[in-house]
Amino acid sequence: MKRELAAYFTSPIAYIVTALFLIFSGLVFFSTFFIVKRAELRNFFEMLPIFLSFFIPALTMRVFSDEKRTGTMETLVTLPVKVTDIVAGKYLASFVSGISLLVPTLFYAVTCAVFGSPDAGPVIGGYLGAVFLIAAFSAIGVFASSVTKNQIIAFFLAFALCIVLTMISSFSIFLPGPVVKLVSFISASGHFLSVSRGIVDSRDVLYFVSLTALFIAMTVRTIRNERKN
């Protein structure tokens, strides 16, 4: 994890991705703040799942694919360490990198507190939900990176999975009743918005924990198969 974080924060990728994330999220927040003249984070949190669907895959696309491209993957899987340790280190580094995107946006919350009177519950819930989203999307991104040596393919695979989980609830109005419940359950944005209201439901926590564990387990299986080969 330390090696991955050192490589990430000494490369320009970290600062380019962070700058782009802050530009897009800042446009959403400050358009509400200056144009609508409301000191609130509602629009920011509503758009956050879409932003993270794009920027988290951009952070994770090189995690394993770069190892495969440069030929260091063979060395990595033959080291006397468990595959679970390798995946855990890569995942934790990706998760911390994702959280680093979120930290500068606390300035938005401070701005709201100074110029308005926001309800603390939804603000705390929004950031807690964002942490859950980053945890799940990081696991998806690490998995996508483990199945290919092409970073672009890894990015688009992770982005496709994340954006489907984010946007799927938008199409529920076109689906029959019995399917709507299933769609609502697998919708990442639906669970995120539930948490962002300031009410932490065990079903929402279970969803994010299960999604994260599923893709970490799939990554472990992928790397384990490479070790055997």
From TrEMBL:
Pfam families: ABC2_membrane_3 (PF12698). InterPro entries: ABC-2_transporter_component, ABC2_TM. The keyword Membrane applies. One of its GO terms (cellular component) is plasma membrane. One of its GO terms (molecular function) is ABC-type transporter activity. Residues 47-187 form the ABC-2 type transporter transmembrane domain. Keywords: Cell membrane, Membrane, Transmembrane, Transmembrane helix. It is found in: Cell membrane. The chain crosses the membrane at residues 12-36, 48-65, 91-115, 127-146, 152-175, 205-223. This is ABC-2 transporter permease.
